[in-house]
Design goal:
binds 1,3-dihydroxyacetonephosphate; 8-stranded parallel barrel; 10 strands; 284 residues; alpha/beta; TIM Barrel; two-stranded antiparallel ribbon
Length: 284
C-alpha cells in the first residue's frame, strides 16, 4: 500500500476505542521489524523519527525506507516526524514526503507554541498532511529537548484554547510520563487525561510510554489516547539482540548477523505493544 496519513487512522482509532502504536525507528532493520510485526498482526502502524535520527541519516533516507516497507505491505503505514523542533525541520520532513508531522513548541511560551504550531498547520494542511503538537511538557529528555524542572502538566482549559488557535489534528498531553528510562514506576494523572478528553475532541497522544506498565497504557487508551509512542524500549530491544550475538562470538564481523538479531528483538517487542494498545486486527 501507499503511505497514508495519521488523519483518518487516528479518527478510526478514536471511534473504535483503541490506539495505534507509534514506534521510533533508527535504522533499516528497525523499519523491517516494525513492518513485519504490523503485517503479522494486521495492525495499522506509525513509524516515526526524531530530529537526532534525521540528523544522523536525513528525512529522505527514512522516508525511502518506510515508503518501501509500506509498498510491500497490506496494512496502513504512516511516516511521522516526532518532536519536530523547528518550522524548518517540519518543512524538510514535509518536502521529503512525511505523511504526518509533529511540531514541538512546548519548550517555549504558550503564545510561541501557538504561533509555531499554527504556522506549520497553515503550511502543510493544503498538502493534506496532519499536525500533532504538544501542550505542557512531557518529562525527561527527548533528543536535544530537555523538559526542565518545571514539567507542567497539560491544563484542560488551555488545551481547548490551544487546539482552537492552532487548528492541529492531534494533541500530545503531559500527564506525568517522561522520555527515557524511568527511575521508579511512573505516576500518571489519569483524571487529568479524562478531563482533557471531555473538552478536547481531537485525538490525544501519549509520549514517553517505554516503561509505563501495560495496564496503565490500556487505561490511558480507555480514557481517550489514540496514539502511543515507544522509542527507548526499541533501542533497548535492538541492542539486546546485537549483544546476544556479540556475547557468543565477539569476532563476528558480518553486520547482517547481529543486526538480524536486533531486528528479531524489536519485532517481538512491537508485537507485544500492538496487543497492549488494541490495534491488532484493525487493518483487516
Ligand atoms: P520513550 O520511548 O522514551 O518512553 O518515549 C517515546 C516518545 O514519546 C517519543 O516521542
Amino acid at each position: 500500500m501507499s503511505l497514508v496519513t495519521t488523519k483518518q487512522m487516528l479518527l478510526d482509532a478514536q471511534a473504535g476505542g483503541y490506539a495505534v502504536g507509534a514506534f521510533n525507528v533508527e535504522n533499516m532493520e528497525m523499519v523491517q521489524a516494525v513492518i513485519a510485526a504490523a503485517e503479522e498482526l494486521k495492525s495499522p502502524v506509525i513509524m516515526q523519527t526524531t530530529p537526532s535520527t534525521v540528523k544522523y541519516a536525513s528525512t529522505d533516507y527514512f522516508y525511502a525506507n518506510v515508503k518501501t516497507a509500506a509498498q510491500n505491505a497490506n496494512i496502513p503505514v504512516v511516516i511521522h516526524l516526532d518532536h519536530g523542533s523547528s518550522f524548518e525541520l517540519a518543512m524538510k520532513a514535509y518536502r521529503s514526503g512525511y505523511t504526518s508531522i509533529m511540531i514541538d513548541g512546548s519548550h517555549g511560551t504558550f503564545e510561541e507554541n501557538v504561533a509555531v504550531s499554527a504556522k506549520v498547520v497553515e503550511a502543510v494542511h493544503p498538502g493534506g498532511v496532519p499536525v500533532e503538537a504538544e501542550l505542557g511538557k512531557v518529562g525527561g529528555k527527548e533528543d536535544e529537548l530537555e523538559a526542565g524542572d518545571d514539567n507542567p502538566y497539560t491544563d484542560p482549559k488551555q488545551a481547548v484554547e490551544f487546539v482552537e488557535k492552532t487548528g492541529i489534528d492531534s494533541l500530545a498531553v503531559a500527564i506525568g510520563t517522561a522520555h527515557g528510562v524511568y527511575k521508579g514506576e511512573p505516576k500518571l494523572d489519569l483524571n487529568r487525561l479524562s478531563e482533557i478528553r471531555e473538552v478536547v475532541s481531537i485525538p490525544l497522544v501519549l509520549h514517553g510510554t517505554s516503561g509505563v506498565p501495560d495496564t496503565t497504557v490500556t487505561e490511558c487508551v480507555k480514557r481517550g489516547i489514540c496514539k502511543v509512542n515507544y522509542a527507548t524500549d526499541l533501542r533497548i530491544a535492538f541492542t539486546k539482540g546485537v549483544k546476544s550475538v556479540m556475547d557468543v562470538d565477539s569476532d563476528v564481523i558480518d553486520p547482517k548477523k547481529y543486526n538480524a538479531a536486533g531486528r528479531d528483538e524489536v519485532k517481538k517487542y512491537v508485537m507485544e505493544k500492538m496487543k497492549v494498545v488494541g490495534s491488532v486486527g484493525k487493518a483487516e
